[in-house]
Amino acid sequence: MSVATAQRWICVPCGMVYDPEEGDPDGGIPPGTAFEDIPESWICPVCGARKSEFEPFD
Prior knowledge:
7% helix
């Protein structure tokens, strides 16, 4: 797994963490999908925020 794929991202408005190992199956994002590879049209499954409202999470 690459470093980019392992990077988690957090939704600034609600705090939901996108983990690429889990993906977002309910949102059509399979496990193992790097955040960078998610379509721009994807939204936070918790609060509906746009992908642009996520930041890298350590």
